[in-house]
Design a protein that fits this description.
By secondary structure, the chain is α/β, with parallel strands linked by helices. The chain has eight helices and 15 strands. The longest helix is centred in the C-terminal third of the chain and has 18 residues.
Length: 352
């Protein structure tokens, strides 16, 4: 990889092109709907499997915890996400100047590395779906809910309308996310071949206490015998995630490895916003978004924990399942309730 190589987003079915080319102001005001049930939440099996409601009794997250979505952008005006977008005032209002002198003009809500532009609007739908799985609003009368429904989202676009993106843009997106205060970075993309610059970006995130959650890929392969990156990097701030089905078995087509894949998470028929409707999607990208949201919840509850400790906590609290015993390093799937309880407990006994 590197030198103009391409990364692709990890989805098990094709994606459409968004025809909307205009973008409303990034600080568009809409009323916050509260205490209105989410119509799809009872159908969202992944929330039940990871025990999300039990975890939400402990915490629904913190807006101070920022989840960066390095993907195809995000529809920041979607009703599920408009109140979850991280917005900074140092570059607002948009005036054509780099007010905070970070090298990005008017980057109030993130950055589009495809166009070099301050409005990272989604053109394929994938990034919006990932953001909603991670941190979609709870009880807003829309769709389902994210794993960390009060965490903030930082949209970063490097994937074009064809679902492809340059490695260099992804790398720049990681550096940007770290410098702009992300606590968690969601990486639902993959490519063939080792890339030292991509590894250096993840190591940079590690030095700045940022957890990077990575998709295992959808080739149906044992990563011990393949060359899929960044899934095969093994940094202390990383979690590599494969996808599971409702019966906790490995999703057909999902990559696996007892050495390189950290854990499993629900990744089949996950309810997500898809353009102007809600639909079901499958793949390791969806499972990765579930775990990224879980990391956000843990960091909300226990902000003093460093990135490697958060990684260890997630792995120490998995629900063991026989089908993953030799398929992933931890031998299990995400247990959000157990992770939240451990994060809340003084001394975090699960880490001993």
């Amino acid at each position: 990889m590197g030198g103009g190589n391409r990364l692709f987003i990890l989805l098990t079915w094709g994606f459409s092109v968004w025809a909307q080319h205009g973008a409303p102001p990034p600080l568009k005001k809409v009323p916050q709907v509260t205490d209105s049930p989410d119509p799809l939440i009872q159908q969202a099996w992944h929330l039940k499997t990871v025990k999300a409601e039990e975890a939400w009794a402990i915490s629904t997250g913190s807006a101070d915890v920022v989840l960066a979505v390095i993907d195809s952008g995000v529809n920041y005006n979607h009703p599920e996400l408009i109140h979850r977008i991280k917005r900074k005032n140092t570059d607002w209002p948009a005036n054509g100047y780099d007010d905070d002198q970070n090298g990005f003009i008017d980057d109030v809500i993130g950055w589009d590395f495809v166009k070099g532009f301050h409005l990272p609007m989604d053109r394929t739908g994938h990034g919006t779906a990932m953001a909603a799985i991670m941190a979609g609003s709870l009880n807003n009368g829309e769709g389902a809910a994210g794993i960390c429904p009060k965490c903030s989202i930082m949209p970063i676009r490097f994937i074009n309308w064809e679902g492809l993106g340059d490695t260099e843009d992804a790398i720049e997106g990681i550096y940007y996310a770290v410098k702009e205060g992300a606590s968690v970075i969601n990486v639902s993309f993959a490519g063939e071949g080792y890339d030292k610059d991509l590894l250096a970006a993840i190591q940079y995130a590690a030095r700045h206490d940022v957890v990077v959650v990575v998709a295992a890929g959808n080739d149906g392969e044992n990563l011990n015998e393949s060359s899929v990156y960044p899934a095969k990097f093994s940094e202390s701030n990383m979690l590599t995630v494969t996808a599971t089905s409702p019966d906790n078995s490995l999703l057909e087509g999902a990559n696996w490895s007892s050495k390189y894949v950290s854990l499993g998470a629900p990744g089949e028929d996950i309810w997500q916003p898809w353009f102007d409707q809600w639909d079901e999607g499958s793949g390791t990208s969806h499972a990765t978004a579930v775990v990224a949201g879980a990391v956000g919840l843990v960091r909300s509850i226990a902000p003093q924990l460093k990135a490697p400790q958060v990684v260890s906590l997630i792995l120490a609290t998995v629900q063991s399942v026989p089908s993953l015993e030799k398929k992933v390093l931890s031998g299990g799937i995400l247990d959000l309730e157990k992770a939240a309880r451990c994060a809340r407990q003084k001394g975090h006994p699960c880490l001993r």
